[in-house]
TrEMBL record:
<feature type="transmembrane region" description="Helical">
    <location>
        <begin position="7"/>
        <end position="24"/>
    </location>
</feature>
<keyword id="KW-1133">Transmembrane helix</keyword>
<feature type="transmembrane region" description="Helical">
    <location>
        <begin position="86"/>
        <end position="106"/>
    </location>
</feature>
<dbReference type="InterPro" id="IPR005185">
    <property type="entry name" value="YccF"/>
</dbReference>
<dbReference type="Pfam" id="PF03733">
    <property type="entry name" value="YccF"/>
</dbReference>
<feature type="domain" description="Inner membrane component">
    <location>
        <begin position="4"/>
        <end position="54"/>
    </location>
</feature>
<protein>
    <recommendedName>
        <fullName>Inner membrane component domain-containing protein</fullName>
    </recommendedName>
</protein>
<keyword id="KW-0472">Membrane</keyword>
<dbReference type="InterPro" id="IPR052937">
    <property type="entry name" value="Inner_membrane_protein"/>
</dbReference>
<dbReference type="InterPro" id="IPR031308">
    <property type="entry name" value="UCP028777"/>
</dbReference>
<feature type="domain" description="Inner membrane component">
    <location>
        <begin position="68"/>
        <end position="118"/>
    </location>
</feature>
<dbReference type="GO" id="GO:0005886">
    <property type="term" value="C:plasma membrane"/>
</dbReference>
<keyword id="KW-0812">Transmembrane</keyword>
Amino acid sequence: MKTLLNVIWLIFSGLWMALGYLFAGVICCILIITIPWGIACFRIASYALWPFGRTTVQRHDAGAPSGIGNVVWLIFAGIWLTIGHITLGIALCVSIIGIPFGLAHFKMVPISLVPLGREIVPTDASTAYPRYRW
């Protein structure tokens, strides 16, 4: 089922989103100072191509530089990308067929809002969900 949803997503939404993130990543890498955001754009592009069966988790080893970078990203790109994902998610959730794709847009909100210090993992990985110690 994940493969079928990913193929449909790729045709109707994922390819265009991934191309946009790739273009932004190339621009960020051309401007030398913004290379960390360019690398983040490339990661988001791979996630935008194939979102079903994967999720994002926060890296605990990310330090203060990723936090500062996230603030800069939030101001210049994060807000606008998040508004776009929320708008498309709401529009797709209007129809019953579009609900899984709308939810995929909502799933991309955290990484588009603050991409530094996050990692994309398969949903069946042990790192996707925290372990609770009793």
